[in-house]
Specification:
Elements (H helix, E strand, L loop, with lengths): L8 H15 L33 H8 L17 E8 L5 E7 L9 H13 L4 E8 L12 H7 L3
Parallel strand pairs: 2-3
Antiparallel strand pairs: 1-2
């Protein structure tokens, strides 16, 4: 009897299960306790002098840490993908949030997912109105934009 290079039924089932499990990995972390109360209450000022009190760049960045890069398994803030968070007054007492972010490469396959997840977590912040997420490639992302924690997680020294 000759063996074939065809995977056995068991191997095929195990491979499918592993692929399914990987696809189910969350790319948005659950809300942390720190986000239940406004972390901006002690901040000196929001990013814009015209923005209503209560929402600040720190709060938005903290929420954006819930967005996990599905390839690197590190949050997008620590990866250094968030360049600008701008808060402006919106309608009906809400605050509009504009975020400029980049990708690790221009053809990042996770780009659309990262943008959608970023929009989702910012929209969930109480008092937020319109959310605009803009992807910019200038300046290009480089590993030196990562926090020390991100470098440690990825084993980059």
């Amino acid at each position: 009897m000759s063996e074939t290079n065809q995977p056995s039924e068991l191997q095929a089932t195990e491979t499918k299960a592993a692929e399914t499990k990987a696809a189910e990995l969350p790319t948005v972390a659950p809300e942390s306790d720190c986000c239940q109360t406004s972390i901006c209450e002690t901040s000196s000022s929001p990013t814009s002098s015209d923005a209503p009190v209560g929402l600040c760049e720190d709060k938005v960045r903290e929420e954006l840490k819930r967005v996990i890069d599905p390839e690197l398994f590190v949050n997008i803030v620590d990866l250094g993908l968030i360049y600008v968070v701008d808060i402006q007054p919106g309608e009906e007492g809400k605050q509009n949030v504009n975020v400029e972010m980049t990708m690790t490469s221009p053809m990042c396959p996770a780009g659309p997912q990262l943008v959608a997840n970023s929009r989702q977590v910012v929209e969930e912040i109480p008092g937020v109105g319109v959310v605009d997420i803009k992807v910019v490639m200038d300046p290009p992302w480089t590993p030196d934009k990562m926090t020390e924690d991100a470098r440690d997680q990825l084993g980059i020294f």
